[in-house]
Amino acid sequence: MWSGGLTLDDVNNDHIHIVSISVFVAVLCLCIVIGHFLEENRWVNESITAILIGCITGTIILLWSKGKNSHILRFDQELFFIYLLPPIIFNAGFQVKKKQFFRNFLTIMLFGVVGVFVSSAIISTGSWWLFPKIGFAGLLVRDYLGIGTIFSSTDTVCTLQVLNQDETPLLYSLVFGEGVVNDATSVVLFNAVQKLDVSRLDVWAALYVLGDFFYLFLASTVLGAATGLLTAFALKSLYFGRHSTDREISLMGLMAYLSYMLAELLHLSGILTVFFCGIVMSHYAWYNVTENSRITTRHIFATMSYIAETFIFLYVGMDALDLEKWKMSKTSFKTSMGVCGTIILLIALGRAAFVFPLSALSNYMNRSSERTSITFKHQIIIWWAGLMRGAVSIALAFTQFTFSGLTQNPVDATMVTSTVIVVLFTTLVFGFLTKPLINVLLPHHAMENHHHQDPNSPNAELKLPLLNFEEHATTNFLRAESSLSMLIERPIYTIHFYWKKFDNTYMRPIFGGPS
Amino acid sequence: MWSGGLTLDDVNNDHIHIVSISVFVAVLCLCIVIGHFLEENRWVNESITAILIGCITGTIILLWSKGKNSHILRFDQELFFIYLLPPIIFNAGFQVKKKQFFRNFLTIMLFGVVGVFVSSAIISTGSWWLFPKIGFAGLLVRDYLGIGTIFSSTDTVCTLQVLNQDETPLLYSLVFGEGVVNDATSVVLFNAVQKLDVSRLDVWAALYVLGDFFYLFLASTVLGAATGLLTAFALKSLYFGRHSTDREISLMGLMAYLSYMLAELLHLSGILTVFFCGIVMSHYAWYNVTENSRITTRHIFATMSYIAETFIFLYVGMDALDLEKWKMSKTSFKTSMGVCGTIILLIALGRAAFVFPLSALSNYMNRSSERTSITFKHQIIIWWAGLMRGAVSIALAFTQFTFSGLTQNPVDATMVTSTVIVVLFTTLVFGFLTKPLINVLLPHHAMENHHHQDPNSPNAELKLPLLNFEEHATTNFLRAESSLSMLIERPIYTIHFYWKKFDNTYMRPIFGGPS
Fold this sequence. Notes:
The first copy, chain A, is mostly helical. Chain A has 22 helices and no strands. Helix content of chain A is 74%, strand content 0%. Chains A, B: It holds the Pfam family Na_H_Exchanger.
């Protein structure tokens, strides 16, 4: 057991602990090597590889231990939420192409926030209506609400590995942006629903959830931005690089982690906090450190995120063979499959219910801007990209239906195993089909979908995402005659314009930026 | 409690956990900032700062919790040996100036291996003889043997921060090398002593410990070198950088950690394994990765080691105020001070007993080489550098005298508190005197003891340690006429010469190296 404290059978436990870590690290290394070989083969991506290797390892351990157990580490929401998720989300914020992200901010928020509300409403009511019909009863109202948010968190890694961000920047930015915001929204909504008094569900309760949600969203964002700015200010005014690059790197990493922990401490959303902390750090703090620290932070945050992601997928694969849970769930095979099928159907339905209408809305809002509109083919890809379910779903399902990873209730056990099946099925089957689907929908794209990285200029990747931010903003807005009419017609662009002005005049001189 | 698994009072425990981590991370950030301000002021170094901040934080928590407890994290040998020590030792191996290290290999081994044997024999017998005389009884033979190894592990960080490695390369290399080898030796010897059958202590038992020690030493070294070579070979033949720098960095980090865990699994010395793994990786593997990965690995391993070190010192400071242990130890203040005084005296004596004779031996062995001999002033500095006791002593004391960090036995509690006092006293008092002492002994050195690092050429530090290795070896040995007479007169140089030949002809073409 990974985070198992020292218990009375200390020596023995210590040894098991060391065995677990060794096996896990060895398998992680194996994943890295195999992932490297499969890089050319874009049919199978790294998530699928990690899950499959996890399944194989699980089988071997199962045979080794003569059917006693399949996982060497018990899935632990704590491990997931305290150690694995923060680096992934922080890195997403740190590496995000800010230009695209902020240009499409409103659309991303529509998909990522409104989308989760729509999707979880549909999945909740759908499962509440359909589960008893296929012979699966025993869930409480709170559980149905939980199911809605659990299956509204998407996993867009598969799609992002196939999309080319230079050819279809808008599409890439939407899928990526929604992926991050969606994770945060599901977790925040999940927590808001948990606090709900289910005995009286009325309009006031719904409004309360909504209000709670917006409070969490805003407060978390402010906390993240404030921590990022504080770090940037400290790095700029003290100039740590004078003595030691180690201190700069430590401070950036530790402050980011502190922002996450503080948010959790204040019962806010750590995910959102650390995401915005990452954005602010890459926008200001990153410019205040030495060249070596810049290279190191870029790479090390990406590496940590990569390891954490592989770790999670590996674990999901391993956990699929957890016999205890399978035995505990007394539901028949038929009902089990019925539950999974229903959930997958509801996921597809719930996602269709917001992707197409919201895309139309976004196209309407951007009708007068230079932005290309979201074509129907793109809408299908966006819809598809969000059908995969990942580690966040599993972690939330464990939180909802188990107690420290264990459950005695057969209904709860069925829900946990169903979640694992849904995640495996969507990642493996839908993930496998992503490449062919995109090839059919974007045929030009198919021909040169490997984004070749010139091994001789590894610096290129470091400079691209951050530099051509300002030119774009200014050239676009010099044409603006009246700021008021602009605000009405192109609200995001106008906000963006004034933000750039403010940023250049006040923020950058204090907190640092490209000179 | 840091690594506390999920228990029944889960929610509450989770919250305490988050509070602990937040406070700890915040205090770590504070240490980094204060350490930066004190960099110019070389009287107080970073270890002392971290210990003092730990004490202050401990006092605040003590007052806050109304005298209930002073630490937010229970000291945990597992946390120390599984998570904090490996990055520190790996980094030591990775950044070691291999030229100096291997040139002085025999002397370093004399100090680091023979020295520990001498010192622990003196401390063991000394405490066995003196403790009952000052009214402290109740320890078993096994405990006295344990005490010998516990107080033989040195902490040379303080001295290394003051020494200038360009002015006194020999001295720096000896103090650094001994520090690393000594840590490993103490832990290996401690484990060897633990396995000893204390009921019959005779020459055979001593020989058995010695044999066990050499087996552990050799097997650990071979395992570390093998893992390093495997990594180098994988990186060279697969060329991961083609696709992703993240994979290269992950693989280096994970393989290093795997070597440590494998050694622990096979009951070898993880410290030695990961140290040699670090040396081999920086000698071969490091040349097989992209430029960005080189910069990133150099800096990130140093940063991780820096954070782990600060963490440990901070913890030691916080633990000093653990009231439980103070109450448990029923020994009078006078006896307590007597025990600590005796230990400190024995440490000084035990160290003097090997530093001066072994220095003379080393000078005799190197009489015909160009190496400058170890002057008496240098000998005093080497003696002084090893008087400080650090985290390894505390971790070993916890292993010997507590059970999962708790103890019910007053005698054991006294030994734990005494160890904490000895570590605090030696680090604070001796550490504080290090700078003045070196100023007196090496007056030239005192004038320019800040090793200035040009902020404009941060690359310099990366290239220096690795490049001028071969020229030196070859120029020295072209003069050699007969290899046999050389082997007798200058054994280390000869071995070095043949090793370089072998390395250039066979190893580097397979495993990579500077081109």
